[in-house]
Amino acid sequence: MEPSYLLFLFLLLCGDPELCYPQTLWLLPGGTPTPVGSSSPVKVECLEAELVVTVNRDLFGTGKLVQPADLTLGSEGCQPLVSVDTDVVRFNAQLHECSSGVQVTEDALVYSTFLLHDPRPVGGLSILRTNRVEVPIECRYPRRGNVSSHPIQPTWVPFRATVSSEEKLAFSLRLMEDNWNIEKSSPTFHLGEVAHLQAEVQSGSHPPLQLFVDHCMATPSSSPDQNSSPYHFIVDFHGCLVDGLSESFSAFQVPRPRPDMLQFTVDVFHFANSSRNTLYITCHLKVAPANQIPDKLNKACSFNKTSQSWWPVEGDADICDCCSDGNCSNSSSSWSQIHGSPQRSKLTSRNRRHVTEEADVTIGPLIFLGKANDQAVEGWTSSAQTSVAFGLGLAMMAFLTLAAIALGVTRKCPTSSHHVSLPQ
């Protein structure tokens, strides 16, 4: 193939520079362009509020330099900066200048414009040696966090915190197996056993949160009403596990598995003056920022019988001092003073989830076996006694029937007698 033919074919294919050079520049979120090649003639830097475009005057890689006056940015024709550098041409524009358009996608804000090379004849000639070219330019910004045009700390609540506070939190209270790995399959207990309770919050897209059990109350029914039924506080005074003060070893688990999870054990019990063999536990759960230092209102404290003192799951020990006298706030934290006389709807599930920013979550019923007046055991005993009595009655009737039959047969049979004569 002749060299002249090869040159003609090359010019035919590359006569339009759009076929020889990529048009779109993809920008990384940090403002660093992703060049198609190491010698890309157009480079873009995406800054916080502006973009900087640097154009190599050897735009087509032919060794012929383009004129700075032939280069503009956007449909408004923004002019390049005056530069002493004769090899490159620079543009500096705000994101909303030079007819820049903006597009909102699922995960990014995309600002787009274009670099235009529109050659004009020079030296009074009527010929051109380069083509008109548009190079699309994009700057992509991820839709996360706050974007500010000034490096200052805002004094208002950031947008992320505002949106997060409008989203709801999912609180849960679960009954777990002894190893804490799975949820307990049966709600039955015997006195002397330990219930393993796990409180948790699903925070979604919120900033990191720390969960606290503010107070828990046990009742024999699903309505935690102090006025109509016996009750017992397990946790009170903004996080004091007061059930551990009695003859039990109830305590929070240390350390907690995650900031948004809190585990504690309760030695099972029943109400002495109640005929029920069921128990419901209702806890008020709340959250605080994970980086907030625990205090008297946000704490998890257990009573250590060995040292006869209160110890927190995290934080300084003095935040638990108020657990001894119950003065952990300006007002008492007992259930009735916080909630009045709460009337709860009847719960049929022992694992009930509530969706709110603070929640009263009820778990139950916990069923106790082996209790003297256990209704379930009483029912079984009554049934067994009835079955035994019924069996004894049938046996007695069978015995009497057999006796009557035997007596009748005896009366029907003739009596024979033999006289024996003794020899003289």
UniProtKB/TrEMBL annotation:
Residues 330-353 are annotated as: Disordered. Residues 45-308 form the ZP domain. Residues 1-22 form the signal peptide. It holds the Pfam family ZP-N. The keyword Membrane applies. PROSITE patterns: ZP_1 (PS00682), ZP_2 (PS51034). Proteolytically cleaved before the transmembrane segment to yield the secreted ectodomain incorporated in the zona pellucida. PANTHER family: ZONA PELLUCIDA SPERM-BINDING PROTEIN 3 (PTHR11576). Component of the zona pellucida, an extracellular matrix surrounding oocytes which mediates sperm binding, induction of the acrosome reaction and prevents post-fertilization polyspermy. The zona pellucida is composed of 3 to 4 glycoproteins, ZP1, ZP2, ZP3, and ZP4. ZP3 is essential for sperm binding and zona matrix formation. The ZP domain is involved in the polymerization of the ZP proteins to form the zona pellucida. Polymers of ZP2 and ZP3 organized into long filaments cross-linked by ZP1 homodimers. Interacts with ZP1 and ZP2. Belongs to the ZP domain family. ZPC subfamily. This is Zona pellucida sperm-binding protein 3.
